[in-house]
Amino acid sequence: MKRRDLLAGAAMAGALPAWGTSTMTLPDMDLHDPFIVTDTASKTYWLFTKNHPAFTGRKAIGVMAYSSRDLKHWNQPELVFQLPEGVWATEGCWAPEVHHWRGKWYLFVTVHNDSLPLTEPSPVPGQRTYRRSTVLAVADQPNGPFKLVRDGEPVVSKELMTLDGTLYVDPKGKPWMVYAHEWLQLRVGAFAAVRLDDELRAIAPPRELFRGNASPAARPQQGQGIIVTDGPQLYRTADGSLHMLWSSWGDDGYFQTLSRSKSGDLFGQWEHLPVWLAKGSGHGMLFRTLDGQWMLVVHRPFKNARGKLYDVRERAGGFELVRQRVDLDLDPTPLPPSAAKAP
Fold this sequence. Notes:
The chain is mainly β. Helices cover 6% and strands 45% of the residues. It is built from 4 helices and 20 strands. The protein has helices at residues 3-12, 53-56, 183-186, 326-329; strands spanning 35-39, 44-50, 62-68, 74-82, 91-101, 104-117, 130-139, 147-148, 162-169, 175-181, 190-195, 207-211, 230-236, 242-250, 253-261, 270-277, 282-288, 294-300, 306-315, 318-324. It has a 4-stranded antiparallel beta sheet, with no helix packed on it. Strands 5-6-7-8 form a 4-stranded antiparallel beta sheet, with no helix packed on it. The longest helix is centred in the first third of the chain and has 10 residues, at 3-12. It is globular, with a radius of gyration of 20 Å. The relative contact order is 0.11. Pfam families: Glyco_hydro_43 (PF04616). InterPro entries: Glyco_hydro_43, Glyco_hydro_beta-prop_sf, Glycosyl_Hydrlase_43. Belongs to the glycosyl hydrolase 43 family. Keywords: Glycosidase, Hydrolase, Signal.
């Protein structure tokens, strides 16, 4: 019998509390590219990240989800998606995101197969291009289980190296996928958007939003002019302006920054704001707590990443980073707001 089945049986017998199988805190939780869904119906936070077999007991290429009622105490993660055998992808499940769309919950996740080369060679010496794409899976509940959509067909052309896809719904209620176009294919990574139909299929060619070197904070890497673009997330403030949270590499390592479209249009023009957090902080997302307050979750450091939580305030024309919630993330080396001053 599997460990989780034993724990579930113990809970039913009264040996464990009805809620959860074990208690963890963020310093215990190996995670990268965290994504949090606030499920108001069950008063639960679900934190999604790539599957780690040591935590789930499942040797699978997939996605796992931790759960919490208070953002401080978390339950042992469960495997919520497994890449099935026989599909084109053999690795990945990076940057999972879960979005509600038309009564279903959709998982956006990045997978790849480095043994499937692309036609177009890499412009970066010593590098090569291969299949890497964001694919979709669907479930009836935010915690899955998720089933692969369209047998893992990429949302955009398989000839494009796409990652970190996110759902954006425009003011007319029309869905788009915004994603990072990989530096391996461009040298200077970019963000692009593709229009989707109600089944979340691409119905038009993708359009580029901007390239990573548009931000004055981004720095070339490896002496080859490489600019990284990661983790786009889109949010609209009460004044109608549109904000993209994203990450790259700068003078102080991996960083989290914001760009703003004052027009509110997805295609800008975009202005690029100062760095919010650095020192290995990045690939974050904003979410609302059960009491409706904005928070930011990021991972830090880049390697052996752990989740960090910040209070965020919406203000005229944007967002302000207020303070790190060390009472929740128990960070022994917090990055204070003075080092993460909002623009």
